[in-house]
Amino acid sequence: MKIAFVIRRDCNRCANIVRRIIEIFPGDWEVEFDRDTAELLGKPGKEMGDISADIIITIGGDGTALRALQMAKGAILGINMGGLGFLTEIEIGEIERSIYQIIRGEYKINESMKLDVFLNGVKQVECTNEAVIYTGKVAKLRKFNVYIGKNFIEGTGADGVIVATPMGSTSYSFSAGGPILLPALSAMVISYLAPFGSRTRPIIVPSGETITVKQMGKEQDGLLILDGQVQIPLSVGDTVEISVSKDKARFVSLKGTFYEKLREKLIKLVVN
To answer: Comparing C-alpha atoms, which of 110, 152, 116 is closest to residue 131?
Structure first.
């Protein structure tokens, strides 16, 4: 078994958890670290893009898991260090019990949709949660033309447009008023950030379609934000095309169903 670790940057507490976990592992298991983790541990490390493992244990939050998903290869097992942590599987008090489950092979691998994103025909990094086309300036409304396939859907004034996977529908899209898509649905959802006009509503799009968003208007710069990790400047007339990728995001599951996890996270959201 080969295990890799990716932790929140500059998190000494996360590094201590790595040390604790390594002590539990069988002696014949291979372990590697990304460079940020290795530096805190005083061990050799690898560039994130060179990591390939059976399981990648991420310690931090959803951002840490998404960073690993974008660059490394392996099934993600997330340990939550605070916040909602929808992409994480383990809470702080569950670490040792969960690691022993992994050692005993008591887990399964679930696959989740990813998105291919093209800017003016050039492929960008894949997304597990969402691609966001966002205004480049605070409090500056932008005009976006949205197409599904070759069909023009609407021209919308908004702070931004979100295209999310079912996994991502529980994240930024959800906070913008979008619906939650169940994992069994092969679909994407288009949601809007602060749309100007009450007629604009989220749209669910079949996975076989391509969603195109064009930034319109004069002197309207913007940003293309991928999973909250990568930001790419946009200019007027730039075209973003989003479709379902052939690749899948892979997650280690130790607990119950999606519905149980959703209920747990939503209760946590209400409590916090």
So the answer is: 116
SS (H, E, C) 118-154: EECCEECCCECCEEEEEECCCCCCEEEEEEECCEEEE
pTM of the prediction? 0.90
CATH classification at residue 227: 2.60.200.30
133 shares a domain with 230 = yes
My answer on whether 239 and 258 are in the same domain is no
Domain that holds residue 140: 114-246
Tell whether 70 and 120 lie within a shared domain: no
Contact 117, 242 (CB under 8 A): yes
Is the pLDDT score of 150 beyond 70? yes
Distance of CA 179 to the CA centre of its chain: 17
Residue with tokens 């998404």: 66
d(CA 118, CA 158): 21
Please report which confidence band the pLDDT of residue 265 belongs to, taking 50, 70 and 90 as the band edges: low
Q: Flag whether pLDDT at 138 surpasses 90.
A: no
The yes-or-no answer on residue 34 being catalytic is no
> Among 206, 201, 210, which Cα is nearest to 178's?
201
Q: For the chain, what is the domain count? A: 2
206: its two tokens: 């079949």
Provide the pLDDT confidence category of residue 267 given band limits of 50, 70 and 90.
low
Task: Give the three-class secondary structure for 197.
Answer: coil
Same domain, 9 and 84: yes
Nearest C-alpha neighbor of 116 from the set 163, 160, 161, 150: 163
Residue that has been written with the tokens 């702070």 in this structure: 159
**Active-site choice (34, 62, 116, 159):** 62
